[in-house]
Write a structure and sequence with these properties.
The chain contains twelve helices and 22 strands. The chain is of the alpha/beta class and about 425 residues long. It folds into two domains: about 160 residues, Beta Barrel (Lyase, Ornithine Decarboxylase, Chain A, domain 1); about 250 residues, TIM Barrel, CATH 3.20.20.10. The strands form three sheets. Strands 5, 15, 16, 17, 18, 19, 20, 21 and 22 form a nine-stranded mixed β-sheet that branches. The protein has an eight-stranded parallel β-barrel with strand order 6-7-8-9-10-12-13-14, surrounded by six helices. It is globular, with a radius of gyration of 23 Å.
Length: about 425
């Protein structure tokens, strides 16, 4: 048999695309399309690569990888990471619920997010999360109020905006520059930290940062950590002796097209150099890095047509299934599941009633025909989690592959599911 390797976890055997030991065509036949397919082996490989680099660079510094759930919140994916020893970074009560369902305990959970509600904070405290990443003075005071009402002391870290310049593919995935909504402005952080230190129902246990996503070089992290270390030293000099955590966020880059991937070993060495002698434990929050390359979106070609001098390949997957190309102008490689000899330059579009509904524009790609299968690559992060029911389209299925077996991890929505929470006949209430 002739075999050509695509990326780890995916291969071609006699022209047919496989995920681990399972033909993608077999999954499409059994589950239908559109369907997200994830390689458990690829997730494990990425986790172990990062953990090995950290262990080599930080043998004497306590550290833990907390997966950023917003990247992929599927329970089977979360369970795979939980079994590897990961914690989670969450940004909502919904993600907290998912984490519990996947087997994570309170001490496995870091609660981030710029707009936490009082109810979410109460749930976090009841669940005894490791700590809450506080993003503003107002949130800090709300944490104090909620903790007092429940008779507990809330462990918090302050998310500090280090205000460093980050090069990334799109401005929407930069989070650590001056003026961004995330975190406490650097010049205000010491003042907010001293307020936290004085509150009776809050314990300030650390500092946090997250500067963005798709970061391939060490320099932005180095600049941000230098600022965080300066703040840490100043607070300790003023008697804040409870600081034991340094949460340095995530953002490690993966390859979608020809971008440079993150140098994980250089990153680990840089972290080691930055935190040496600080007497802190380290939390990292990778999301995309752990899962993006594990996933593909399977789509079936519905039609081919030509209009205005352009070729169109129309598929059954649209922007409601994968919004990244439209929302971020993101590139995803698109392969034919079965080798096609001819090639064509075409727009790959979906069935959604929007001109912005596309998966690729002017793409040189296999000249697939109606009925053929396409695999949209590097779709394991910010794919299904950002899907919607726009145009009243049911959300796709999700499948996890392990070796030569596969299982449905999320059933495809039915039409009945679209209206399950709606009411055509209203129960009116008087005021």
């Amino acid at each position: 048999m002739g075999e050509s390797v695509l990326t780890s976890g995916f291969s071609r055997v006699d022209g047919a695309m496989f995920v681990e030991g399972v033909p993608l065509e077999r999954i499409a036949e059994a589950v239908g399309t559109p369907t997200y397919v994830y390689s458990a082996g690829r997730i494990r490989e990425q986790y172990r690569r990062l953990e090995s680099a950290l262990m080599a660079a930080l043998p004497d510094v306590p550290h833990r990888i907390h997966f950023s759930v917003k990247a992929n919140s599927n329970l089977a994916v979360l369970r795979t990471l939980q079994e590897l020893g990961a914690g989670v970074d969450i940004v909502s009560a919904g993600e907290l619920f998912r984490a519990r369902e996947a087997g994570f305990g309170g001490a496995d959970v870091v609660f981030s997010g710029v707009g936490k509600t009082a109810d979410e904070l109460a749930q976090a405290l009841a669940g005894k999360v490791l700590f809450i990443n506080v993003e503003s003075e107002g949130e800090l005071l709300l944490v104090e109020q909620v903790a007092a009402e429940h008779g507990v002391v809330a462990p918090v870290t302050l998310r500090v905006n280090p205000e460093v310049t980050v090069e990334s593919p799109h401005e929407y995935i930069r989070t650590g520059e001056k003026g961004h909504k995330f975190g406490i402005p650097y010049d205000d952080a010491e003042h907010v930290a001293m307020i936290a230190h004085a509150l009776p129902h809050v314990q300030l246990v650390g500092l946090d940062m997250h500067i963005g996503s798709q970061i391939a070089v060490w320099e932005p992290y180095s600049s941000a950590l230098t600022r965080l270390k300066t703040l840490l030293a100043s607070l300790r000099a003023q008697g804040v002796n409870t600081l034991k955590w340094l949460d340095i966020g995530g953002g490690l880059a993966v390859t979608y097209d020809d971008e440079a991937p993150a140098d994980v070993e250089r990153f680990a060495r840089g972290v080691a150099e930055a935190v040496r002698g600080l007497d802190v434990s380290i939390v990292l929050e990778p999301g995309r890095f752990l899962v993006a390359e594990s996933g593909v979106l399977l789509a079936r070609v519905l039609y081919r047509k030509r209009s205005g001098g352009k070729e169109y390949i129309i598929t059954d997957a649209g922007m409601n299934d994968l919004v990244r190309p439209s929302h971020y102008q993101a590139y995803h490689r698109i392969d034919a599941v079965q080798d096609v000899g001819e090639r064509v330059v075409a727009d790959v579009v979906g069935p959604v009633c929007e001109s912005g509904d596309f998966l690729a524009l002017a793409r040189d790609m296999p000249a697939v025909e109606p009925g053929d299968l396409l695999a949209v690559q590097t779709a394991g992060a910010y794919g299904f989690v950002m899907s919607s029911n726009y145009n009243s389209r049911p959300k796709p299925a999700e499948v996890l592959v392990e070796g030569d077996r596969f299982a449905v991890a999320t059933e495809r929505e039915r039409l009945e599911d679209l209206v399950r929470l709606e009411r055509a006949h209203l129960q009116w209430r008087s005021v």
